[in-house]
Amino acid sequence: MSLALTRNELIRPLNLIDGTWTGAADGARFAVTNPATGETIAEVANSSAADARAATDAAARAFPAWRDKLPRERAEILRRWHALIVANTEDLAKLMSTEQGKPLAESRGEVAYGASYVAWFADEATRIYGDLIPQQQRGKRMSAVKEPVGVVAAITPWNFPLAMIARKIAPALAAGCTVIAKPAEDTPLTALALAALAQEAGLPNGVLNMLSASRENGIAAVADWLADARVRKITFTGSTPVGKHLARESAATLKKLSLELGGNAPFIVFDDADLDAAVTGLMAAKFRNGGQTCVCPNRVYVQAGVYARFADLLATRVAALKVAPATDPQAQIGPMINARAIDKIASHVEDAVKQGAKVLTGGKRLTELGPNYYAPTVLTDTRDGMLVCCEETFGPVAPLFRFDDEAEAIRLANDTPFGLAAYFYTQDVRRIHRVAGQLEAGVIGINEGAVSSEAAPFGGVKESGYGREGSKYGLDDYLSIKYLCQGGLD
């Protein structure tokens, strides 16, 4: 199919390596499809280990000169990149909605969100401070300075194809690192357009290299990066099993890793909560991007005294959601990313119903709209042991679990190997401090469903990974500390 943009040159079906747009070394290509229709949008380079090695070669060559630029010089390029992203919002949003499926309004919001990381780290580039260590011995001066780690490999998912790669590339470039990046096979076009704008902003050749690859070829490409000692850091957002694999396979060269992995976020509604506010917060947290986010509430715990009322309020709101392709300006929920996603969602709902759960709204595929649509769903009478409790559904399904008291809510919320995000609603100030202190998650929403911000540290605990993105802490993962001891000063 044809995709008409104001600037059609932003559709880049080639790799960016050392400042040149080029096909895969062996000429291989693969199709990127529109999840709303199944139609092919474009055929892009299907990169292999040879292409990954070429990207590493370019990044390694470019690193010394980029590292040695003044922080304000790097910041100026990042600011120009930010301005270009904002100026091309509509084209980027259309491209994103076409290959990922999210409603156009959400895609516009993601462009702004991703751009905010570029602006934030442009400023942070000039704030990389060291320390003068108080003198311990006469005649010696000790200090600590921060330096870029080197070549960074960024591997990103399909659910936020612009924001995820921007919040990895921007701090890396701000710190003085060079980057090799592989976006998800489902959504490479948005990332490649972002790279084109970075090049337009004046980023030197080789500082940012980006390649697309199918699932099979991508494994081989990433394996080359894992084995290459010149790659000093891996930053990855995706599943916990893949994150563990990256950690194991990178151990031979002791790379620095940032891993933002799977989640199983609880959303707790206490009986003293403002229920209307809690429903609004859950709608924002759960149904953004059709429920396809790592911080989506996967388990909704509602105290027994308000369970029935909350369920009715939520079901009314969810039933009113407009499910449609991104081309429909009224769309609130678009298609899921692919058939595998739909099959997983359906299997979770079917398993819950078989075990006694009730469907208040939704609970079915919407095949009349296209191949990858599922109705926004609310389930009641769900319990431990169901797939919706044990696995991350990654879709527009809100299962409601009943609890009796605060201690039970905390126990249930923490009863998972994951710890990315957690949410709770209460009007009791003392309870706020008790519960926030006991929940095992890296991100906590307190009477708030929309928690992401470029100024906040984002990341998880337990099997949701380690490292933080965003905020002043997000730069540290791309820096190493060097201790300097100067003697002979007495």
Automatic annotation (TrEMBL):
The keyword Oxidoreductase applies. GO terms for molecular function: glutarate-semialdehyde dehydrogenase (NADP+) activity; succinate-semialdehyde dehydrogenase (NADP+) activity. Keywords: Oxidoreductase. Residues 21-483 form the Aldehyde dehydrogenase domain. PROSITE patterns: ALDEHYDE_DEHYDR_CYS (PS00070), ALDEHYDE_DEHYDR_GLU (PS00687). The keyword Cell wall biogenesis/degradation does not apply. InterPro entries: Ald_DH/histidinol_DH (IPR016161), Ald_DH_C (IPR016163), Ald_DH_CS_CYS (IPR016160), Ald_DH_CS_GLU (IPR029510), Ald_DH_N (IPR016162), Aldehyde_DH_dom (IPR015590), Aldehyde_DH_Superfamily (IPR050740), Succ_semiAld_DH (IPR010102). Pfam families: Aldedh. The active site is at residue 260. Its EC number is 1.2.1.16, 1.2.1.20, 1.2.1.79. Belongs to the aldehyde dehydrogenase family. This is Succinate-semialdehyde dehydrogenase/glutarate-semialdehyde dehydrogenase.
